[in-house]
Amino acid sequence: MKFRTRAVAALAAGAAVATVTGAVAAPADAARSGLAGRVDRATAQATARGAHVQIAFLDRVTRQYVDNGAVAHTGAETASVVKVFIADDLLYRQSRKQLTLSRDENARLGLMLRSSDDAAATYFWDRYGRSSLVDHVVARYRLADTRPPSDGEWWDTRTSAADLVGYYDKLMGGQGGVFGSARQTILTNLRASTSTGTDGYNQRFGVPHALPRVPVKGVKQGWMIAHSGDWVHNSTAIVDPDGRYAIAVLTTESASAGDEHTRQTIDDVVHTLFPRGYVQDDTPFAIPAIPGLPTVQGLINAGTNVVAHGAPN
Length: 313
Known about the structure:
two-stranded antiparallel ribbon; beta-lactamase activity; Beta-lactamase; single chain; alpha+beta; 9 strands; Beta-lactamase class A
């Protein structure tokens, strides 16, 4: 991602458990343990380092959803994470014969997803609709906090951690209209994310750095220096072969702290969330959804959280 500049609104870290489609979480004022407690600790640690952080997590099987409060529903710059939205809309339109990508364009799309190629993103942005690419994804996936860029530059698209895990959930479930080979194109390329972007920047921060014991993870990263002078580092992923877990961690921190400091911040956040190097399941057992009964089943989590179980709406 090229180092662009743009103003970033200050984000206040929250401590509530929120919900996404089809998910239920513990009361906001409950004492939090397990993953929720680790989210709170990670938020406090990032704040102590001078960073603003959004955290959202969804277990697509149990429907356990955890975030760090209202801040996780606040618009922030996507940087290169928007490239997933660009690819999604192009592949959706191609699957409905609204356009046909050439062999060269398909190669560019893969490079854009795997290696975060800026030139490919700019090419697709200018050729296929600019901000309307984001508008289409927002409408199809019903994203509440995502907006096209006010300045028309793709990297300044705004989204939230909550929207990103919701997007990945609906991508895997097909609710956004992307199925079969179109969806597989996105997943295959995200799972083949390269160590460095085409601009030479090391993409191994956040999720890929802190989850070395997870063999299959589809990752889309974003990084840039905003107009305010803040570093933006975003790490998002759909994790496990079946895409069970969706994770989004978005950070902003003064560029005066230095690149290494800001990268360490997001690495530490994800490590605090998952200290064993893989995604721990906080639920000892789940009662499967039963046809004819309500989709929200009891799920006991060591007496701490009650989680919804069943298909998303």
